[in-house]
């Protein structure tokens, strides 16, 4: 792990009218770490994710990837540079098969395009890669199903398989277990643990379930009213007064 952060926000801000949904957030993320971003509803967590991944343009501040300013780059360009994002709501090609969703991602990562003259072995490699990603999320048995026909939990797993096929440097998970059954949750959590164990990937996780945060996070960042109010090791942050007041009390009332 190097000292220089792989991802950084500097005074990152977005305003909607007179309201600052994210207000001057500066935070750096190192390779090989998993940071949980927590806070009450409306704290700005998903908006902060949207600013980093390029779904929203910043009003002020910067986003840097490996020291390079990517603040003005659109989301597809950031994805090609290695910023991978899984959403609260699934982001799939609903009328394509599970396999084709992942194969297209593998093709995009390989730069294969839509040429009619692609070598057969290249297509086989892409297919093998797609199947390997589906196996990692326990969806190989549903490869022929249309994405639109999958239950919600399987759609979430498919989105993670697509992100794996893109081979990002940064994995961004926005409430990855939302809407999943009790039986489905361990598949995604185990996958996140395996990605973390590779040691060279950076993971950002927005999550309301504090048991998930405790089990996965090296570090917790707390947002409240769009501002960063706490940042540190999980035990210290969870025990801090500001988190007890700003987050845990709210979380206890809304699950």
Quickly describe the structure.
By secondary structure, the chain is of the alpha/beta class.
Distance between the termini: 36 Å
Name the beta content range: 15-25%
CATH superfamily of the largest domain: P-loop containing nucleotide triphosphate hydrolases
How many strands? 10
Are there runs of 5+ residues with pLDDT below 50, and where?
250-255
Overall SS class:
alpha/beta
Structure report:
By secondary structure, the chain is an alpha/beta fold. The protein folds into 2 domains: 169 residues, P-loop containing nucleotide triphosphate hydrolases (Rossmann fold, 3-Layer(aba) Sandwich), CATH 3.40.50.300; 76 residues, no CATH class. The chain has 9 helices and 10 strands. The strands form 2 sheets. Strands 6-7-8-3-9-10 form a 6-stranded mixed beta sheet, sandwiched between helices. The chain has a 4-stranded antiparallel beta sheet with strand order 2-1-4-5, covered by helices on one side. Strand 9 and strand 10 form a beta hairpin. The protein is globular, with a radius of gyration of 18 Å. It starts with 6 loop residues before the first strand and ends with a helix.
Features of the shown structure:
four-stranded antiparallel sheet; globular; disordered C terminus; six-stranded mixed sheet; 2 domains; 255 residues; alpha/beta; 10 strands; Rossmann fold
List the helices and strands and how they pair.
Blueprint: E1 7-16, E2 19-29, E3 34-38, H1 45-53, E4 60-65, E5 68-69, H2 75-81, E6 83-86, H3 98-110, H4 120-136, H5 152-165, E7 170-174, H6 185-197, E8 202-206, H7 210-216, E9 219-224, E10 227-232, H8 234-239, H9 241-254
Parallel strand pairs: 3-8, 3-9, 6-7, 7-8
Antiparallel strand pairs: 1-2, 1-4, 4-5, 9-10
Helix pairs in contact: 3-4, 3-5, 4-5
């Amino acid at each position: 792990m190097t000292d220089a952060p792989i991802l950084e926000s500097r005074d990152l801000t977005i305003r909607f009218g007179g309201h600052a949904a994210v207000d001057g957030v500066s935070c750096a993320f190192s390779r090989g770490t998993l940071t949980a971003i927590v806070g009450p509803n409306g704290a700005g967590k998903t908006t902060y994710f949207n600013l980093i991944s390029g779904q929203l343009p910043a009003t002020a501040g910067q986003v840097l990837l490996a020291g390079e300013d990517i603040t003005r780059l659109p989301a597809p360009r950031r994805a090609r540079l290695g910023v991978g994002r899984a959403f609260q709501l699934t982001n799939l090609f609903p009328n394509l098969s599970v396999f084709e969703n992942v194969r297209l991602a593998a093709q995009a990562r390989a730069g294969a395009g839509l040429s009619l003259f692609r070598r057969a072995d290249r297509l086989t490699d892409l297919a093998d890669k797609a199947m390997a990603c589906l196996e990692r999320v326990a969806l190989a048995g549903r490869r022929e199903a249309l994405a639109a026909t999958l239950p919600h939990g399987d759609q979430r797993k498919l989105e993670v398989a697509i992100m794996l096929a893109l081979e990002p440097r940064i994995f961004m998970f926005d409430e990855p277990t939302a809407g999943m059954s009790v039986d489905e949750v361990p598949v995604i959590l185990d996958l996140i643990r395996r990605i973390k164990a590779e040691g060279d990937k950076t993971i950002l996780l927005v999550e309301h379930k504090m048991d998930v945060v405790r089990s996965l996070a090296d570090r917790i960042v707390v947002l409240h009213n769009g501002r960063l109010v706490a940042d540190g090791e999980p035990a210290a942050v969870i025990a801090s007064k500001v988190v007890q007041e700003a987050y845990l009390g709210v979380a206890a009332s809304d699950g």
